[in-house]
UniProtKB/TrEMBL annotation:
Gene3D superfamilies: Aldehyde Dehydrogenase, Chain A, domain 1 (3.40.605.10), Aldehyde Dehydrogenase, Chain A, domain 2 (3.40.309.10). Keywords: NAD, Oxidoreductase. InterPro entries: Ald_DH/histidinol_DH (IPR016161), Ald_DH_C (IPR016163), Ald_DH_CS_GLU (IPR029510), Ald_DH_N (IPR016162), Aldehyde_DH_dom (IPR015590), ALDH7A1-like (IPR044638). It is an enzyme of class 1 (oxidoreductase). The active site is at E261. One of its GO terms (molecular function) is aldehyde dehydrogenase (NAD+) activity. This is aldehyde dehydrogenase (NAD(+)). It comes from Chitinophaga dinghuensis.
Length: 508
């Protein structure tokens, strides 16, 4: 890993605050990042003080005055070059993501691929930031709308997608003409440093003004500074629902804008008409991939009573074949949780399941031994529960899968929707009527609803996000870019008269 760090110019003691050209002192607390893979320290990163923060915001404000005047396709060309740089660094950055966060190497590479994909998407979009034209009721008048940049976009990201979520936001924000201040998760600061280095090189080669790409390493405090700051018109925050409620209140109090991407509690309905082979792969990958630490991880299986017993038997057998261990070894299916706090939360949830009446079909537990010395490796487990249990209503960020039975599809959809979160959902069925009922207005209430695909693994072309306590934000594809811009309606009078709207007479 030392070679990888060196290739990004990251030292053992490193400032984590940058204006895109200069690295500031980093006068805040030092954040030590250690790997959940083997418990070893990766680097000590100096986080931002309030003075650093104010310097970064001032630089970003100045940069915006210049950057907003660059033609959008020219900004797109810079983003295209970032995509090229990411292609070159895919292997190193993917390995670093895997090592610092603990996801499998394949998923580390996949995360970087997602960054490359959003760059490509943003390049095309840089020529398509179009508004509508309307017919005016007044003669000799024309109406249209256009989209302008907003200013500073703050980006708060979570540990589980340490770099992709930043890229979803920043690539769109940049082609829209905004400048960005990124506050990465304090659990994964080193991957953020690597991204900053990659972008800085591209920006330097293109004379992009200092302040367009800022990095603000820090903990909750730094996130709170962004949330409270009226100089930050848009804050995109990804993380827990607890964090989202705090950010939403602070940004709302100053009538700023926020994009909230919060927790999920995602279910797959497995119908009596399902292809059970496909369902098995979808369920197991959804539940144990990234050790259950995706916002779209499958937390609940709602299984038709006619196929329940046979599906559970296959599921239990599949869990028996899972290999848990170092995620950099491609033979393993499941890596570690992010840290020991996450292990504790996993253990407490298992305890709560038992107390509330659940029974374990596959037992959990913390793994011990030399290869698990970080103390972060746990066994994926399965519990038979009722949807109404308090613990089932919560998102535990770990590989705990809840299973339950249903009789009618209406009942299954009700169970699927009957949780506070509304991110991702899926139905496994070969029956057209069932699939359409699930997707209809009275069907799934989630931001993502899939048929014959599991709950995790979204593509960047669609808008990504969820309803209810997931926060309501949308990022990435489709028209998600509109959240990063302000809309302006323009009416132009090319006649020789000044008629008023609604036929109002006002003669002098
Ligand atoms: P977290 O809420 O602990 O932290 C996320 C980020 O918010 C960190 O950068 C943290 O420093 C910052 N933060 C925490 N409290 C804050 C506050 N009061 N004000 C401002 N910033 C604050 O989440 P985590 O443990 O890093 O990530 C896991 C959570 O993220 C899960 O709930 C998961 O579902 C969610 N998530 C959601 C999506 C999505 O797109 N919906 C994507 C990834 C992760």
């Amino acid at each position: 890993m030392e070679e990888t760090l060196k290739s990004f110019g990251i030292t053992a003691q490193q400032s984590g605050v940058s204006t895109g050209k200069h690295w500031l002192a980093g006068g805040g607390p030092v954040i030590t990042s250690s790997s959940p893979v083997d418990g070893k320290v990766i680097a000590a990163v100096k986080s931002a003080s309030k003075e650093d923060y104010d310097a970064v915001v001032a630089t970003a404000q100045e940069a915006f005055k210049i950057w907003r005047q660059w033609p959008a396709p020219r900004r797109g060309e810079v983003v295209r070059q970032i995509g090229e740089a990411l292609r070159k660094h895919k292997h190193d950055l993917g390995r670093l993501v895997s090592y610092e966060m603990g996801k499998s190497l394949q998923e580390g590479f996949g995360e970087v691929q997602e960054m490359i994909d959003i760059c490509d998407f943003a390049v095309g979009l840089s020529r398509q930031l179009h508004g509508l034209t309307m017919h005016s009721e007044r003669p000799g008048h024309r109406m249209y709308e256009q989209w302008h940049p907003l200013g500073i976009t703050g980006i708060i990201s979570a540990f589980n997608f340490p770099v992709a979520v930043w890229s979803w936001n920043s690539m769109l924000a940049w082609i829209c003409g905004n400048v960005c201040i990124w506050k990465p998760s304090e659990k994964t600061p080193v991957t953020a440093l690597a991204c900053q280095r990659i972008v800085e090189a591209v920006f330097a080669a293109n004379d992009v003004p200092e302040g367009v790409c800022c990095l603000l390493t820090g903990g909750r405090d730094a996130g709170e500074w962004l949330a409270a700051d009226h100089r930050v018109p848009l804050l995109s925050a990804t993380g827990s629902t607890r964090m989202g409620k705090a950010v939403s209140a602070a940004v709302g109090a100053r009538l700023g804008r926020s994009i909230l991407e919060l927790g999920g509690n995602n279910a797959i309905i497995i119908s009596e008409h399902a292809d059970l082979d496909m369902s098995l792969i979808g369920a197991v990958f959804g539940a144990v991939g990234t050790a259950g630490q995706r916002c779209t991880s499958t937390r609940r299986l709602i299984i038709h009573e006619k196929v329940y017993d046979q599906f559970i038997a296959r599921l239990v057998k599949a869990y028996g074949q899972l290999r848990i261990g170092n995620p950099l070894d491609e033979n393993n299916h499941v890596g570690p949780l992010i840290d020991r706090d996450a292990v504790l939360a996993y253990q407490q949830s298992i305890e709560a399941v038992r107390k509330q009446g659940g029974t374990f079909l596959v037992e959990g537990g913390v793994l011990e031994g030399p290869e698990y010395s970080s103390g972060c490796y746990v066994k994926p487990c399965i519990a038979a529960v009722e949807n109404i249990y308090d613990i089932v209503q919560h998102e535990t960020f770990a590989p705990i899968l809840y299973v339950m039975k249903y009789q009618t599809l209406t009942e299954a959809i009700h169970m699927q929707n009957d949780v506070p979160q509304g991110l991702s959902s899926a139905i496994m069925t070969l029956n057209l009527r069932e699939a359409e009922q699930f997707l209809a207005a009275a069907g799934s209430d989630c931001g993502i609803a899939n048929v014959n695909i599991g709950t995790s693994g979204a593509e960047i072309g669609g808008a990504f996000g969820g309803e209810k306590e997931t926060g309501g934000g949308r990022e990435s594809g489709s028209d998600a870019w509109k959240a990063y811009m302000r809309r302006q309606t323009n009416t132009i009078n090319y006649s020789t008269k000044l008629p008023l709207a609604q036929g109002i007479k006002f003669d002098l």
